[in-house]
Design goal:
Layout (H helix, E strand, L loop, with lengths): L22 E2 L21 E2 L11 E4 L5 E2 L12 E4 L5 E2 L11 E3 L6 E2 L13 E4 L5 E2 L12 E4 L6 E2 L12
Parallel strand pairs: 1-2, 2-4, 3-5, 5-7, 6-8, 8-10, 9-11, 10-12
Length: 174
């Protein structure tokens, strides 16, 4: 399915992706305001940049078959409250930033790097997060501007390298 194939289909409420689809292309379902749910086929190995940007999704599970997650894949999804990343990704780029009332985020145990701005301003209603033991680097602004964050639990025996302002603005973080 080509880039931007369903972009700006504001009234699209439902879509069934082909079971053998291997890639969700750049901006494929961007700005689909009425699309609240999607089942990502297990054949998908890559979600390209801005694939769902500005969509109406309320929750998403990224299956374990996904190894590449593009920049801005779920940026500006204002209704997205639950993110379950089962994917075998080793890094999360700035994919989930901006404007969300996310209340639940599950990070995969394969994750090594959380890139600059990955969840910046995206976790407004999230009060706690657990960083998997596999994470060795959390870059600057990765979780920045998420004022309700009160608890960060890191499962690693050796703390990861944490960049400038990685968790900045959270006033009561423990």
């Amino acid at each position: 399915i080509g880039e931007s194939a369903f972009a700006y289909c504001f009234d699209l409420e439902s879509i069934t992706l082909p079971p053998l689809l291997q890639k969700i292309t750049n901006r494929m379902l961007s700005e689909c305001d009425s699309l609240t749910a999607i089942a990502i086929p297990t054949a998908v190995t890559e979600i390209e940049q801005e694939a769902f940007i500005g969509s109406g999704l309320t929750s998403i599970t990224i299956p374990s078959t996904v190894t590449t997650l593009g920049t801005g894949a779920l940026t500006s999804c204002k209704n997205l409250t639950t993110i379950n990343i089962q994917a075998n990704v080793t890094e999360i780029p700035e994919s989930f930033a901006e404007d969300s009332g996310r209340t639940s985020v599950t990070l995969p145990n394969t994750l090594v790097t959380i890139r600059d701005g990955a969840f910046a301003s995206a976790l407004a209603n999230l009060t706690e997060i657990t960083i998997p033991a596999s994470v060795t680097t959390i870059e600057g602004r990765a979780f920045g501007q998420n004022g309700d964050m009160t608890t960060i639990t890191c499962m690693a025996a050796t703390p990861p390298t944490i960049g400038k302002n990685a968790f900045a603005v959270g006033t009561g973080t423990t």
